[in-house]
């Protein structure tokens, strides 16, 4: 009998935002796959640990996922991760793969998901609260109203054209490009707010583009309003 893979969205940072379904499946799964070199150092691990103190009783499997745009290196790491997970599924073991936010939104997990799916193993995605929804809630603001469109944009790529779109823009994963992103936003004069590490102990809120630091952390998200 083959095991089943669950891609578990653990939410943006606050352990209380972990869904009941996600928590149930984690408890039921003997194998917990965690992105990173060391499982216990992963943000996703710490979120689930906050909601489920007995997490360390499970078999924790670290799945290295390098932060790079090198296509060859990414392909190799995704293939290796999929084969690593498939080994447990072949033994009939259920695997819960933890991923920040929601597994369907810019998540590394989805590349592993596609490979496992192609191998023919049963699998399921478990939704988590997306970071941009959590950020808007934390700022006590709506994302969109009436006929306004919402655009989710990976900010480490070119954003100039995307910012011309009508409605609310969510800028994710700016990373090392934060300084450039700030320059563009200042030139446009758009109203924006940012949260770094939403729902975590070191959460920081910035109410204008002028307040945003050039070296903001990886888990930073900007909401841009017209």
Explain how this protein is built:
This protein has two domains: 5-126, Tetrapyrrole methylase, N-terminal domain (Cobalt-precorrin-4 Transmethylase, domain 1); 131-225, Methyltransferase, Cobalt-precorrin-4 Transmethylase, Domain 2 (2-Layer Sandwich). The chain contains seven helices and ten strands. The strands form two sheets. A five-stranded parallel beta sheet has the order 3-2-4-1-5, with helices on both faces. 32% of the residues lie in helices and 22% in strands. With 226 residues, it is α/β, with parallel strands linked by helices. α3 packs across α4.
Report mean pLDDT, rounded to a whole number. Answer: 94
What's the main sheet like?
5 strands, parallel
Number of helices: 7
Q: Order of strands across the biggest sheet?
A: 3-2-4-1-5
């Amino acid at each position: 009998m083959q095991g089943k893979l669950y891609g578990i969205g653990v939410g943006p940072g606050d352990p209380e935002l972990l869904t009941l379904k996600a928590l149930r499946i984690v408890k039921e799964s003997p194998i917990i796959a965690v992105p990173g070199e060391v499982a216990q150092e992963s943000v996703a691990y710490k979120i689930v640990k906050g909601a489920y103190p007995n997490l360390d009783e499970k078999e924790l499997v670290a799945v290295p996922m390098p932060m790079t745009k090198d296509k060859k290196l990414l392909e190799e790491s995704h293939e290796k991760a999929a084969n690593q997970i498939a080994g447990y599924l072949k033994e009939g073991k259920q695997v819960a793969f933890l991923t920040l936010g929601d597994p369907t939104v810019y998540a590394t997990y989805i590349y592993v998901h596609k490979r496992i799916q192609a191998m023919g193993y049963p699998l399921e995605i478990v939704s988590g609260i997306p970071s941009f929804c959590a950020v808007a809630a934390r700022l006590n603001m709506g994302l969109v109203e009436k006929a306004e469109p919402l655009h989710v944009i990976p900010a480490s790529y070119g954003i100039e054209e995307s910012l011309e779109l009508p409605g609310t823009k969510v800028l994710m994963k700016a990373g090392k490009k934060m300084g450039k992103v700030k320059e563009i936003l200042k030139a446009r004069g758009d109203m924006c707010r940012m949260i770094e590490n939403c729902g975590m102990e070191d959460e920081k809120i910035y109410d204008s583009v002028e307040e945003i630091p050039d070296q903001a952390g990886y888990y930073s998200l900007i909401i841009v309003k017209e």
